[in-house]
Amino acid sequence: MPKESVFVNDFTNGILDPNGSMLGPVKDGGIIVANTAPGCWGPMITPALRGGHEVTRPVFVENAEIGDAVAIYIKSITVTSSVASSGNEVAVEKNFVGDPFVAGRCPNCGTLYPETKLEGIGSASVHCAKCDEEIAAFQFTNGYTIALNENKTIGVTLTKEASEEAAKKAKSYMAVPDNSIQNPVVTFAPHDIVGNISRLKPFIGQLGTTPSIPMPDSHNAGDFGSFLLGAPHEYALTEEELLKHKTDGHMDINRAREGAIVICPVKVKGGGVYVGDVHAMQGDGEIAGHTCDVSSVVTLKVKVIKNLNIDGPIILPVEEDLPYLAKPLNVEEKKRAMELASEWGIESLENTAPISFVGTGSNLNEAIDNGLTRAAELFNISVPEVKNRTTINGAVEIGRYPGTATVTFLAPIELLEKVGIYSLVKEQYNLI
């Protein structure tokens, strides 16, 4: 029996598995409330997690069939961590097989995906539970520990002494959920940047639907997914398999924040909506590879769109986050345009509205091409037309370096109506 609300406090082992059990079902139009665990660094130093992240157990959505899409309304994001750590990384080659995000291995006893224990604080605190070998697959090249104020509007990076004090109660300060198995990265106490001030602007780094083949969660995207091609571990894929089965839920796009709508492809029955890797802040591109990962409580509303047949996500950002040229035209602008059109004998003008396509690939050029192609295929227009519209009515923006981007432009309303999503766009931007 579908539920109006589904509360999620369970996590995967890092693998998104279409054959695994899902929570729910939640009603078409229902609510998902999830208590999320930090992404990136905590899972990266927890080799029992096989995906580089620790996302929520997927939720089955009523009426969601393969070929449909699920519109996910981000109703709220409440950060629960009060301290976090992050930074740029280097992999420790002896502690993994082929991919440090996926296939951790103890260099002493040879155990794959070993259970671990924490001994003290600092970068050597993660040990194999079986043989006591130090086993973290990653270390910081430059890292920081950041304290967040009570109302989660500002953060300040800590000194060595303060970072080490926080490290002693890392799980509490990070508010790591009870069912999470990750080692809290605040335990490492990085402190290379001290006294820096940052504004908070929380968003969701992992939000999407379950791929149609078992896949490490952080690799459910074209850039990180390319690490799976011919990999020497059990989750290796071919290029054809990756392109066919991924859903690009690992976006790290900072416009996926409170108030936005993310439209996701359905590639397994029920969709399998999952969430995780909330970030307290991030500029375009996540250029350091990681940012301030936090625990949070996320509230989502889900709505099925029948037969949309998209390959990857579409975002309807809050209007403030739209590129200047892609913001909806106001009454005065339309009036001036009509006056100009009359001077040139043009009887009617296009009515347009914003839309943003996510593209991914092994590099940014591939990601941009992927976003352009997805837009062209949905609207049945040419890629050159999408390029022109993006140039004069939008922008290409970096989601994540090395290979996630958005292609945003004002699309003709008749095209939005034809594919069945104009009502959603109209609602998001209060169009008349």
UniProtKB/TrEMBL annotation:
Asked if the record carries the keyword Hydrolase, the reply is yes
Q: What class of enzyme is it?
A: hydrolase
Q: Which InterPro entries match?
A: FmdA_AmdA (IPR004304)
Q: Does the keyword Hydrolase apply?
A: yes
Keywords from the named record: Hydrolase
Output the superkingdom of the source species: Bacteria
Q: Name one GO molecular function term.
A: formamidase activity
Q: What is its EC number?
A: 3.5.1.49
PANTHER family attached to this UniProt entry? FORMAMIDASE C869.04-RELATED
This protein is called Acetamidase/formamidase
